[in-house]
User: Fold Acetyl-CoA:oxalate CoA-transferase from Achromobacter ruhlandii.
Amino acid sequence: MAPKLPDAGALAGCKVIDLSRVLGGPYCTQILADHGADVLKIEPPGGDETRGWGPPFQGDTASYFVGVNRNKRGMTLDLSQAAGQELLRHLLADADVLVENFKPGTLEKWGLGYDTLKERFPKLIHCRVSGFGADGPLGGLPGYDACAQAMCGLMSVNGEADGDATRVGLPVVDMVTGLNAAVAILLALNERVRSGLGQFLDITLYDCALSLLHPHAPNYFYSGKTPGRSGNAHPNIAPYETLPTASGPIFLAVGNNRQFAQLAQVLEAPALATDPRYAANADRLAHRQALRDDLSALLAQHDAAALADRLLRAGVPAAAVQTVDQALAHPHTKHRGMVLEQGDYRGVGSPIKLSRTPATLRRLPPDLAPSQP
Assistant:
């Protein structure tokens, strides 16, 4: 993701007003900004609260904020005041998209709700990211990533089988909500080409958390059994889990019989592939513990990274378990352009690779600016 001309990008010419804070909305708008959209991030006078979510800090700004707010212009605006509301309306006059994550009812109270704005700006695409939406049993209530993980079943299937329900170690619900919001915006922009009209996009953490329940939801629908925790083991596939080696854990993700035969070949254990207990995936699942014991004995003399490389090259999905610093320093990370560096700025690059209009780094995350873009 090398720097390009300011007008480069698949979304060049698209103007986005970003009123969102914290993670889901800002992650969405960073995706749009990376691909050329002109994103104006408007913060309340005190700033996005994640500016203080540190240490670590880059200058006076927490790394948390820096991580999801590049390629945006910035300004502050007090939308609770009439002057701030009028300035926002002025900014929306030539905007394509409005992204916000206010509690439902807040913008409506200020005369800035979708039903009001669409009368004045019929082409505006208004994307709201919220916890639960505006109506229903939980409508209008605040939502947070960890609470969505707990409420929507994610924690119940995460963790060791004999341990407690565990939060996924990153804000996966916030981030997939941001991804879904970006997809929704692109869908609406495409539809607007035909209709000439904007629309309201209702993206909630609750819905997005439920959408992540694969394969647990379909397993429940068709078995009637409530899914539980299985640690790193897959509920439907074996071997598909971490196993110990001489140098640390390795993850084996053996999805079919051919891969299992290749695993046995690389481990120089042909009897493994002909053992009737392991003939097919259903057999391997039925004898999961015996398979784990046999594999652990074979892996005990191997180095995790070296073996993972051999297995991958033999067509068997496998990986040594790496720490964050190791993953970011990996040669393939550099090859894929997944770490961006400019001056004191370092960030994770865009995973969305387009051949003619690639993502670019055009602006560093904005400082907390006065009320002018």
